[in-house]
Amino acid sequence: MKRRAAALMAIATVLTGAAGCASHDTQVALQRPGIPNNQAFRIPYDHALRGSVTIDYISGMSQYSFFFAEANRSQFRPALEQVLDRSGMLAKTPAAARYGLQVEFVDLQGSFFGADFDSRSRAIYRIVERRSGRVVSQQTVDAGFMARYVGLTEEDAAAAYWLTIAVAAGGLAHYVGADNQVKAWRQAYQATLWSTLFAPVNAITPGNFIAGGDFFGNTDVPRPYVLHGDLSTEGYGSRDGRTRGIQADRQMMRQSLAKWVMGLSEEQGVPLTVILPCDGNIEVENIKLELTMRGIPYRGETCHMRPVRVIH
What we know:
This protein is α/β, with parallel strands linked by helices. The chain is 39% helix and 18% strand.
C-alpha cells in the first residue's frame, strides 16, 4: 500500500510540474514595478490655449465596439477630456472655448483572435481657432500596444498541486476501507490523474483567445503589466480574452495621448514639468540646479519644493 501511495503521489507531483509555468522572462516581467512617470504637461497661465480648448470632434473611430476588440469613442473621449483638464487647456464655459480640438483617426486596428492582442492607430490631432478655422497646432501620432498572453503561472501549478493532494487523500481513504481494493485503487488513481490534468484548464479555455469588445466603453479593467507607463509598447494582459483586448485598446489610447502631449509641448515651446522625489539628497539638489539653469520647471512628487535661486 505504501508503494502504491508513493507512486500515486509521484505521478501527481510530475503531472503538476508538467502543467507548466510561464517562461522565466514572463515571471520576471510580472514582478517588476513600473518605472514612474517623472514628467507632466501643464500649459502656462499666459498661454493662449490656457482654459480655452474644447473637443470639436473625433472621426475615424466608432461610437461603440460591437463584436471584437476595437477602440471606440466611448472609451477615448473621456480620456481625451481628462488630458485637456489636467493640462489646463480645457475650456470650462462655452464662451471660453475659443479653440477646438479635432482628432482624426486615419488608421485604427484592433484584435480578433489569438494569444497576443495588438492594438494600433494613427491619429491627427489638430487645434483650430473655431471662428476663423485657423490651424494653430497639428500633430500626427502613431501608437501601438501588444497585450501578451501570460500562459500558465505558478499559481496554476499551485492550484493543481493542492487539488491533486485533496483528491489523492480522498481516494486513498476510500481505498483503505474498500471491499474491492483493486477497483478502489483504480478509481483513486484515475481521479488523481484527471484532477491534475484539468486543474489549469481555465488557462486554455476558448474565451481566453477571443478579443471581445467594450460596447459602451465603460468596462472597468485593470491596467496591463507594463514597465514604461503610458509609453509602453508591450506588456502582459489578463488571461481573459475580452479583458485583454480592452487592455490593449486602452493602453494604445493612453500612448497616443501621451505622445500628442509631448509633441504639443515641443511645438508650443512649453517644457514638460519634471517630477522629482522629495528625498532632498545631493543628487536631487543637483538635478534641481540643472533644471533651473535650463529653465525647465519641476515639482515634488508628494511635497512642496522651494525653487532653487541661482545668483549670477
